[in-house]
Amino acid sequence: MAKKSAKKPARKASAKKSATMELAAALLGGRVKVIDLTATLGPETPLIKLPPSIGLNTPQVEIHTISHYDDKGPFWAWNWLKLGEHSGTHFDAPVHWITGKDYKDGSTDTIPVKNFIAPVNVIDCSKEVRKNTDFLLTVDHVKAWEAKHGAIERGSWVVMRTDWYKRNGSEAEFLNADEKGPHSPGPTAETIQFLLKKGIVGWGSETVGTDAGSAGGMNPPFPAHNLMHKANRYGLASLCNLDKLPPKGAVLVAAPLKIKNGTGSPLRVLALVGK
Hints:
Elements: H1 19-28, E1 32-36, E2 62-70, E3 73-82, E4 90-92, E5 117-124, H2 126-131, E6 136-137, H3 139-149, E7 157-161, H4 171-175, E8 177-178, E9 181-182, E10 186-187, H5 189-197, E11 202-205, H6 223-230, E12 234-237, E13 250-253, E14 264-266, E15 270-274
Parallel strand pairs: 5-7, 6-10, 7-11, 11-12
Antiparallel strand pairs: 1-15, 2-3, 4-12, 4-14, 5-13, 8-9, 13-15
């Protein structure tokens, strides 16, 4: 009589899940929320207005219909767009500024993709900005924030919460300019230098650009552009909903379009926040 072959024990499933499996389970289970940090892009999107003496402005956003379930395309709808790279919620690549023009990995099509996902530190300046639209974030403000929330990590984003995005429905309120120029919050040059020494991957703001309205008079002028891009680092402008993020612990996802030699790009910025 033939002997029955002994059954091999079932292979045990790996007790340890991969980090991506755990993240997927957390997303599906609702333990990680996805927050949209992006303004809607359209013809009403506020854009920076440069004085004619400085240079040309980016064109207003235009959306044109190609077809809309009609004789130009009976089963589909699609549009074509006219817009600048730095329109609405957008990404600034190093080659956007003259100080970063020589980086081989400084355009939107050459930046290492691992840099598009990183932890984010949210510095809340909303109370100060309500009192003073020209508020400037100083090194002392950042040090006080770190004393309360912990050190800013190398390779992370730093973004300035001001609740400025709530002005986005009106270009006049969003740009907040008068005969003396724009009045909007931002960092000092010393603050950008301090953050770069910490090795941050980028700086983000809720205003039309990454610099303060008064940044043209700083040394160097426009330090969030001049210094960040000189260091081959990145910028995010016209962010929204930073008031929905914790000071630390969220992960920022900010991947620009892969435009050939792109100096920047409109993009959908997301944050992953654990419950």
